[in-house]
Amino acid sequence: RGGALVLVMLVLLLFTLLGTAAVQMGAYEIEQSELQAAQQEAGDLAESGVELGVGWFTRPETFTGRIGSAAGPCPAPARADTALAKRCRRRNGRASFSTAGGESQFQGTLSQPDGAISLSAAELLPRSPGSPGSIDPAGGGRIEVVLFGPTTPGAICTLQSTGRTAGGTSRTIRVELYEAAAPVLTAAAGAGAAGPAVGPVRLHWGGLRYGDNGRLPVDPDQVPVLTLLAPVDGRPYAGPEGVDERLDQWMDVVIGGRLLEPAGDATAQLALLQRWAGRGNVRIGATAPTDVDDWPYWELKRLARRFGRYYTTDQQGWLYRDGRPPAIEADAAFGAVDGPASVLFIDTIDGQLPRLGPDGNLPTITLSRSVGRYPVYIGGNLILAPSVPPSAPPLAPISVAPLVVPSPLADGGPVELEGVEFSGGFFVAGRLTVERESRLYGAIYASDGFEGTDHLEIWYDRRLGEGLWPGWPVVSILPGSWRVIAQ
């Protein structure tokens, strides 16, 4: 008598309560999901700002933000596009982000930073909203990046990036950056000491360095005259009659020891030194940077095993990728297309530090062609022997496509080089031998000097003097410095 009605009403009430709870839980889940998505987007924006800031150091001309006025130990930047360039000088004269005493060029604070920029997501990621990724360029998010002085000894600056969504959710990441050690080649050609003999080495856009005793042509006219009137193009030097064309804007010679030629004749030696004295771009007995310290064997070996290409060798000069068969020739190793290499490392025979002399451990590597601008460490002797088609005459030039390279002038356009067989930066732990006329764009250093009777012609890639290699960062994030700042 009415009991069924009460039971039905209680059941309806229970279902109503359960439905209301389910709706509230669903709304809470949606709210949490939206909040999580917003936090994820803010975090992605902040991380993108960190990557963007690191990239500015590789290409400082892309930084378009505002710069601070904090006084520092190095020349102040005149424009925003120079604020993140290396403005200090070390004792060896190389550009750096810090002084010889380790004081950073960045001296700003969070409130008065050395550099700051604010970008919309659309400016950072100009892509369609439907493309993959959690950042929607059309969503109205922003990134704010500031750069100021470091707090950790050895770091060069602090980078703080804040990502902010259109709804106001934000996340801030703070890291410290340090200058990434990259191998450098400070001259077009360098050697620890002169080899037993050398053919004419013709250099463009750069100089020649001997860390110890060195050789020069008996005829000073074979060494280009240093002058700003020199044309900057891809033309090689003319023959012996074309003396007027032996000009270069950067050509200088530094010999750390004494001049070896002509040997055993003090009178002729003095006469030759007097002839060189009037050139102005030849220094004998001066301190010559030789780049040896910038190519550490163990460190580059470790990097090649992790990020680059590492090869062991045998007595015959065959190469083995990561020490495993099959054996390949050097040209195959240089021509590998398995992605860019941060460094290509060819090890010594026994996998130990290079040793010269009778008990040496250096293989002999023969190369007929190379590609790429990554650093190449060769723990042995190198022979440059460009290949020639079987039907070609003995002295026929090798047919290679023209190489278009950037001009060494800051405001210059691209330059086209003809007949370049070798490209890149080479550090040779032994001796370099030129078996056939060779042309190189880049730079080369040979610890045991040069030999050969044929010509080696080099156009210096001046970026290698600053350690600017494709894929090699100018700065890196200091391990352990990544912090998420509470909002």
Provide the descriptors you would attach to this structure in a database record:
single chain, 487 residues, alpha/beta, 12-stranded mixed β-sheet, 7-stranded antiparallel β-sheet, 5 helices
Structure description:
The protein has 487 residues and is of the alpha/beta class. The chain has five helices and 29 strands. It has helices at residues 3-58, 121-124, 266-277, 297-307, 330-334; strands at residues 66-67, 88-89, 95-96, 115-120, 142-148, 157-164, 170-179, 189-191, 201-204, 208-210, 225-226, 247-248, 253-255, 282-284, 309-313, 319-321, 344-346, 364-367, 375-378, 381-384, 403-405, 415-417, 422-428, 432-434, 438-446, 450-451, 456-460, 475-477, 483-485. Strands 8, 9, 10, 13, 14, 15, 16, 17, 19, 23, 25 and 27 form a twelve-stranded mixed beta sheet that branches. Strands 1, 4, 5, 6, 7, 28 and 29 form a seven-stranded antiparallel beta sheet that branches. The radius of gyration is 30 Å and the shape is elongated.
Specify the helix fraction band. 10-25%
Q: What is the makeup of the main sheet? A: 12 strands, mixed
* Cα radius of gyration in angstroms: 30 Å
Counting H and I runs of at least 4 residues, what is the number of helices? 5
Number of β-strand runs:
29
Q: Overall mean pLDDT score?
A: 82
Ranges with pLDDT <50 over ≥5 residues?
A: 127-133, 390-398
Shape: elongated
Estimated share of beta-strand residues: 15-25%
Structural class: alpha/beta
Distance between the termini: 64 Å
